[in-house]
TrEMBL record:
It is found in: Membrane. It comes from Candidatus Caldatribacterium saccharofermentans. GO terms for molecular function: carboxypeptidase activity; penicillin binding; peptidoglycan glycosyltransferase activity. This is peptidoglycan glycosyltransferase. It is an enzyme of class 2 (transferase). It catalyses: [GlcNAc-(1->4)-Mur2Ac(oyl-L-Ala-gamma-D-Glu-L-Lys-D-Ala-D-Ala)](n)-di-trans,octa-cis-undecaprenyl diphosphate + beta-D-GlcNAc-(1->4)-Mur2Ac(oyl-L-Ala-gamma-D-Glu-L-Lys-D-Ala-D-Ala)-di-trans,octa-cis-undecaprenyl diphosphate = [GlcNAc-(1->4)-Mur2Ac(oyl-L-Ala-gamma-D-Glu-L-Lys-D-Ala-D-Ala)](n+1)-di-trans,octa-cis-undecaprenyl diphosphate + di-trans,octa-cis-undecaprenyl diphosphate + H(+).
């Protein structure tokens, strides 16, 4: 031997069945409580005689056509891979025989460095010396990862087709062999058409190898594939676990996630998640609930739908929907930085644009002159549009972007009515800026991933950026507090300082409430996947706001109430409720925040 055998190679088990020790990966919430597991389903071992010869050939055709001829390595394949490595100045995969793939699965450390590559080749040669081709193939077909936590062809046949190995059709066998290339991309549960493309590739290789006839090839190509459906997973936070998986897959291989025994520490709070689950389920509506800590972006609860069994589509992160009036605060924030104050007067009146557009208020009435405060509390569309016109579409879009909205935004005045579709995650994150003195966090789900020995393999820390001045953020928080105290969001009241905004779209298709305290932001979205109306008068204020109240009350029950903290540059004074001017003795008053130097200077003369 040219290379000294390291511990790894010396401790090679002599039993092929022992390959890939499978350890459950555990997921913990913010307080260290177990909230989920990623694991390999119990492997069902299949002896080679149980595995249909055609299925064996499908894998051989797909992965290693010369399997029965080469000595464990495919010299041409290795030369090709080495040449690629030289070209790329790094180690890329390639030229791997079935034996090499089997030996690779011995190394839990999946780094693609040269040392590991050499060990892998040496082990492949050792395997070939010690075992027959049939034994190697059997081990391979039992240990290969085939997606969704499943190893081996026997369990995979059940996972995908609900069948015993003996009942598989050629079309199904080819699809199974195709999945092996990269289960997270080619699983028919993840991307059916990608799975079909792989199936076609495998069938073509089988045809080229002479394993099947032209007639069998064509018949298999047109044979229908019926999937058995993924097993139901009852869990506290299935949508959140899916969300985690996406992030984990940017760093870890599936086999590490499902059998590497990782410990994943997350930001979720099981208590808040539980109440959010119940709130959505009992509401009877389809939708999503998301809770974020505005100070650090920790996702405290994520409900992506009323039933994961019914649909795995995550409506908190994946559904792009019209936000309706929950978009208005972006306009108001930009307006506060463009010379407007809570007392600025705008006129609610009929508008007609040159293109014939005649926007309406929700109540189909026009109220005449009113303050900015009242317009936001009552969610007056006309004033939203006028403000957008005054401030400028580009500036408002710029504000939305700074606050974390990434979806496309329409460059026209209908933007004021929330016609540009976005996700609950974007919206809830953006509102964090109001709750957190103008600082907006990146949403965070995973804090830390450790291996079985407790070594930290992956770590994330909060990233928080300034999106608004502390003054503007505070004034917005107070104005949005008025929405709950006096406006469209009264059903969101929770008996402590809280702020938020309702949203309802045309024909009651979407209902929203996004609200917050200084400690927690909670976004509620309700709406049918097919965009069927929720029903008459099912507004955000009526059906979404109560869910906010329910979740927040429970989530904050152990947290003392906090006021939004008023920054240096803001003064709060009592003004006339109606006109926003300094109050006369006969005025009803409200305390409003103003940037220093912008308080009203004249006394109200309108109140009798
Ligand atoms: Zn007055």
């Amino acid at each position: 031997m040219l290379f000294p055998l390291s511990e790894d190679l010396k401790t090679i088990s002599t039993r092929l069945e022992d390959f890939t020790p499978s350890l459950t990966t555990r997921v913990y919430d913010i307080r260290g409580r177990l909230i989920g597991e990623f694991f390999t389903e119990r492997r069902e071992y299949a002896h080679l005689e149980e595995i249909p010869p055609l299925l064996q050939k499908a894998f051989i055709a797909s992965e290693d056509q010369n399997f029965f001829r080469h000595p464990g390595l495919d010299p041409l394949g290795i030369l090709r891979a080495l040449w690629q490595n030289l070209l790329n100045l790094r180690v890329v995969e390639g030229g791997s025989t079935i034996t090499q793939q089997l030996s690779r699965s011995r190394f839990l450390d999946n780094r693609r460095n040269l040392e590991r590559k050499i060990k892998e080749l040496l082990l492949a040669i050792l395997l070939e010396r010690r075992y027959t081709k049939e034994e190697i193939l059997e081990a391979y077909l039992n240990q290969i990862y085939l997606g969704h936590g499943v190893y081996g062809v026997k369990a995979a046949a059940r996972l995908y087709f609900g069948k015993d190995l003996a009942d598989l059709t050629l079309a199904e066998m080819a699809m199974l062999a195709g999945v092996a290339r990269s289960p997270s991309y080619f699983s028919p549960y993840i991307d059916f058409s990608a799975a079909q493309r792989q199936q076609r590739r495998v069938l073509r290789r089988m045809l080229e190898c002479g394993f099947i006839t032209q007639e069998e090839f064509e018949k298999a190509l047109s044979a229908p594939i019926v999937l058995s459906g993924l097993e139901k997973r009852a869990s506290l936070c299935p949508y959140f676990l899916d969300h985690l998986l996406k992030e984990l897959r940017t760093t870890f291989e599936d086999w590490q996630i499902f059998s590497g025994g990782l410990k994943i520490y997350t930001t979720l709070d099981a208590d808040i998640q539980k109440v959010a689950n119940e709130a959505l389920k009992e509401s009877g509506y389809q939708g999503a609930i998301l809770c974020i800590d505005p100070t650090n972006g920790y996702i405290k609860a994520m409900v992506g739908g009323r039933s994961y069994e019914e649909s795995k589509f995550n409506r908190a992160t994946q559904a792009h929907r019209q936000p309706g009036s929950t978009f208005k605060p972006f306009i108001y924030a930009a307006a506060l930085d463009s010379g407007f104050t809570p007392s600025s007067i705008l006129v609610d009146e009929p508008l007609e644009f040159p293109n014939g557009w005649k926007p309406q208020n929700y109540e189909r009435i026009f109220r005449g002159p009113m303050t900015l405060r009242e317009a936001l509390e009552k969610s007056v569309n006309i004033i939203g549009i006028k403000l957008l016109q005054e401030v400028g579409i580009d500036k408002v879009i710029q504000y939305a972007r700074k606050m974390g909205i990434r979806s496309n935004l329409r460059r026209d005045l209908s933007l004021a009515l929330g016609t540009s579709e976005l996700t609950l995650l974007e919206l809830t994150t953006a509102y964090s800026a109001f709750a957190n003195g103008g600082m907006v966090p990146e949403p965070l789900a995973i804090l830390r991933v450790e291996d079985t020995a407790g070594h930290v393999l992956y770590e994330r820390t909060p990233v928080v950026r300034r999106a608004l001045s502390p003054e503007t953020a505070y004034i917005m928080a107070r104005l949005l507090q008025g929405v709950i105290e006096r406006g469209t969001g009264r059903r969101a009241a929770i008996g402590r300082p809280a702020a938020g905004k309702t949203g309802t779209t045309e024909d009651f298709i979407d209902a929203w409430f996004v609200g917050f305290t200084p400690n927690l932001v909670c976004g509620i979205f309700l709406g049918n996947d097919d965009r069927k109306p929720l029903g008459p008068q099912k507004t955000g204020g009526i059906i979404a706001a109560p869910l906010f109240a329910r979740v927040m009350k429970e989530a904050l029950k152990d947290t003392p109430p906090h006021d939004f903290s008023c920054p240096e540059g803001v003064v709060e004074i009592a003004v006339c409720l109606k006109t926003g001017l300094l109050p006369s003795p006969s005025c009803k008053t409200v305390v409003l925040p103003f940037k220093r130097g912008t308080t009203p200077q004249t006394v109200c003369t309108s109140c009798p």
